Amino acid sequence: MMGTSRMFHIFIVLGSAFMILVIILYWKEVGASLQYLHNPVLPGPKVANPVQQQQPQTPLTPSFLSDIDAFVNQFLEPGTGEPTDPLPAETSNQSEKAEERYVPRQEWKIHLTPVAAELRQRQESRQRLLKDLCANDSLTFPGKNRSFDDIPNKDLSHLIIDDRHGIIYCYVPKVACSNWKRIMIVLSESLLHNGVPQRDPMAIPMEVAHADNMHFTFNKFWKRYGKFAKHLMKVKLKKYTKFLFVRDPFLRLISAFRDKFEHRNQSFYKGFAKVILRRYANHTAPPDSVDEAFAMGVQPSFLHFIQYLLDPQTEKDSPFNEHWQQTYRLCHPCQIQYDFVGHLETAEEDAEHLLRLLRVDNVVEFPTSHRNMTSRDLESDWFSTVPLEMRRELYKLYEPDFRLFGYDRPDSILNELLAHT
């Protein structure tokens, strides 16, 4: 009996030592990534003033249980009120007056009329086109057949997540992305105004709407979740509603040129215009400031811009800027099955349909404002200074976007010698 009891105690001691070793090894392996999991998954820090943003506070050291709870919460259904869907943390510290002004979100609005059949068919057609072109070999482009796991982390920066409502938005610059970013901020309740979440999208300044710390994007998962990042991305891609808005590729290029090179933008002048002027406009020493350049009439032309896009040296130096990078490179439509594809040309109808599909049309409306859109009728004027062969090369560069998103080949530009204006 004595020998049996001693062996029993030895086994207990050895078993306890083994469990402690396992816990130590486990914590060493995943602790670095779990330390971020106690933070709620919000697109950015709360901001008391839309113009002067507060810096995020340094997180406290998490407990093991809080880490596990936060990790489990990522897999719960959004919009249920259970623990992934709490009120903003600041709400509990607001004044009674602020609490009276706060109106809780009212999801699941009941609609008395069905969505128009035309709108449903439009979405079905756009999604079917994407699926077909991604599945067959009639269209090829770099990265088409890679898996989601093979997409570099830096190429996931345009996917914005709203965990409150289970939404993923891939933003494409020059396609109403400012207003859609505003809507994502309102839905995530990540911006405070007078102590309560901002409800008016158009009250959010442009610089705040585009501020990186206002949005939680896929490329930030690695810092927060470590080795679990890619798995959590896939979970959210499977469960959440994913959407993007696109635009005729050539008209988007014209819009980008007008916005970034015809206005005084020091950042784009220094980073791009000076390079274009030196390479294609024979300005060996362009002015240092955009104000001086405009005063001297030294600006790149649209032809210079097209030459810059077609020059192989451009991509050797660095990837295209997001304002003229192809949509398929920004949003990866052959790796991500989008639930909604909006077009800028039908923006109002598509936005109303989408917000209703997301069941947030009682929370926010898509801002209706005058858009300085480049007309299709003016497209020929813009390309009249571009040689025919260069136009055809440019189409090849952006052909995947034309075909994936259902835009007709611009034959009037690609097959005709346009008169210079």
The percentage of residues in β strands lies in: 5-15%
Structural class: mainly alpha
| Termini separation | 106 Å
The major sheet is characterized as: 4 strands, mixed
Question: How many β-strands, per DSSP?
Answer: 6
What is the CA-based Rg, rounded?
Answer: 26 Å
The residue ranges in which pLDDT falls below 50 over 5 or more consecutive positions are 25-69, 75-108
Q: Numbering strands along the chain, what is their spatial order in the largest sheet?
A: 1-2-5-6
Average residue-wise pLDDT: 81
Count of separate DSSP helical elements: 18
**SSE series:** HHHHEEHEEHHHEHHHHHHEHHHH
What general form does the structure show?
globular
Helix content: 40-55%
Structure description:
The structure is a single chain. This protein has a domain at 118-262 and 299-421. It is mainly alpha-helical. It has helices at residues 2-34, 64-73, 96-101, 117-135, 177-188, 206-209, 221-225, 229-239, 249-261, 266-280, 290-296, 302-310, 312-317, 327-331, 347-357, 379-383, 388-404, 411-414, and strands at 159-162, 167-170, 192-193, 196-197, 241-246, 340-343. It is built from 18 helices and 6 strands. The strands form 2 sheets. A 4-stranded mixed sheet has the order 1-2-5-6, sandwiched between helices. The N and C termini lie far apart (106 Å).
Which structural traits does this protein have?
mainly alpha, four-stranded mixed beta sheet, globular, two-stranded antiparallel sheet, 421 residues
